[in-house]
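Narrative progress, year one. The postdoctoral researcher (J.K.) led the effort to move from monomer predictions toward full complexes, under supervision of the PI. The following entry was the first complex the group processed end to end, covering 789 residues in total.
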Amino acid sequence: METLWFILVALMLVAYVVLDGFDLGAGVISPFVARNHDERRLVLRAIGPVWDGNEVWLIAAGGALFFAFPLLYASSFSGFYLPLMIVLWLLMLRGIGIELRSHVDQPLWWSFFDFLFAMSSLLLAIFFGAAIGNVIRGVPLNADGYFFEPLWTNFRVGINPGILDWYTVLIGLLAIVTLTAHGAHYIALKTTGVVNERTHRMASRAWVLLVLLTILSLVATVYVRPQVTDNFRLRPWGWIIPLVVVGSLVAMPLFIRKAHDFAAFLASTGYVIAMLGGVAFAMYPVMLPATTDPSYSLTIYNAKTGDYSLGVGLIWWTIGIALAIVYFTFVYRSFKGKVTLSESDGY
Amino acid sequence: MDSALVIHRLHFAFTITYHYLFPQLTMGLAPLIVIFKTLSLWKRDERYNKAARFWGKIFAINFLFGVITGIPMEFQFGTNWAKFSQYAGGVIATALAMEGVFAFFLESSFLGIFLFGEKRFGQKVHWLAAFMVFAGSWISGFFIIVTDAWMQHPVGYELAADGTAHLNSFSSLLLNEWALWQYLHNMSGAVITGSFAMAATGAYYVLSRTEDYYGRLFLQLGVIVAAAASFLQLFPTGDRQGKLITEHQPVTLAAMEGLFRTEAGAPIVLVGQPDVDHQKLDNPIYVPKALSFLTYRHWEAQVKGLEEFPRDQWPDNLPLLYYSYHIMVGLGTIFILVTFTALFLLWRKRLFNSRWMLWILMLSFPFPYIANTAGWITAEVGRQPWLVYGLLRTQQGYSMNVSAGNGLFTLIGFMGMYTVLSILFIILIWREVAHGPDFLKS
């Protein structure tokens, strides 16, 4: 049961990164691919009807984590206190950056909100990457299952690391490049003309960095936490994950060169799923490793709630997510196709 | 009192109070927008559509501010109240997680269609989108109330070996009697905020002679709905809440009323200042025997005073509880007087020419916000010193690994952020109201 909920929570987080990832990426690339008022409006129209729904996956995943593993939720959210609060502020700034821009017809007003949108998207990508880095590297948990991490200590991975050290910053950079490529693929899919061409160039450049950083981060991860290879030995079927990573990395530039924008978007989606799936696969059954004493690590066994609640949860979760998938299918089908500036309302 | 505890309490109190300024309007406006959309389909009158679109814009701005100030709420249980989350997560997180999958997906998906899809998908889909957004916002409210009701009146749980609460009855959690009355009371409060905002906007348009047709339309719907909701707020929802408090939190009832001594035929105090040190009420103006009657339907019934309870069971901020309760009840009474007078004038076809009444309606829209906020302060301060009533004290629930300094850092950050948000909000809403419903392109 706890394994099932581990998978479900991981799935919701992956759904969040795949979906909100492309609109975060759109924010990161918007200053470069969209250079004037109309082009920026195109980018906003491409993500406008969907970004809020995408972000709900983060809230829903947070809720599911709280529900299934209360101790992990309590420990990690209080231990990562400062970066989490910064993430919340960035999410707020990003929300108003997207939604308030079109309310006033004034170039200075537009510039201000363009800046908010791009800057908050970029910083969020770093923080989300660093968060994954922290979870892989481990945190200084005590015997009660709690810790408190400052933003930085000496930038080394040790017993008492900070949120930002060389490893988590590296994963943060990988996250930026991943979402840049993912966002570029999405914007390419939704646009035509000059914006479309620029996103192709952006995606090609990001791809080179993505390959380099993927290799580098893989080596670093094995160095920082050698235990990540254990599950690949125990469960050899897991080798399918690195195959998907390599496959999608190879596919991306091929599709971009042929302007198969949807296929390229699927390739970066596959990359995101495989990378995050790989993290979950390698960590299982640990959810938050301790740098202090391995026995303090939070696992699916010591952090879970009662079995009754998890069992009932399966029923309502299945119904709720089935409904959510129906809504999402409806919304994405409704707004499918290239965006234009012809309709009068919205952004 | 440990200062980290104070900071974490202020942190949650500040962010939740600010947040709830927005959902109370969106939850209150949503059914009114559905009414306009329904009227436009039924009577085939484009003007109802313009009205729906105008309030849709106001709704959208509020919804955005509600969403972005709501994101921190879901996370703050863990960041600032970790021990509470560990203790109660096995029960309340069921409600919070259900809110995510049943309400937020619904709202966020259909809001985009409501705002951008009218021309593309036609009127019927647009009506459906309006209805779904309404349903989503009301479902969301329900799960939040279920969470709070469990903290007020825990049901359907058992204590596990490690001392944390685990759910053992899903139906008891969702059908908690406390949750059902609190939900109705809260939603009717939200409708009061929404309908007062509509009536006030209508009064402004009629008084300023800028949008006479829409001014009258907003006044009609606003006043009728406000009168109905104001009445429901008192009876049965407020009355039943009071009964539940009498039964399950008698010490809270005594503190709310400022009743220090046990009395038969206890009076209800309208105005007065509690002096906790000397355990008396200064300068009371009261109605004799009314409290006994309202709580037990019997003029001579005995009502327990604070003296019956050990001091460590008393709500720890008694004056705040006393004042917030009296402000809520006082304003609620005034709402009934104002809306029924306006309703009478509307019925006699004299409302639109009664400038004095229009002035009152125009200026009254802030007061439902105050009443709703005061009501929530009553509920939450009244629950003290407990975080989960009778089970977990507030001082046992905060994040002991987060120091007061770190807590204050982010509290100040939120205050700064919300100051900026407030300025933007006022600018944007004022622009929409000044433009009026007819300014929008059809």
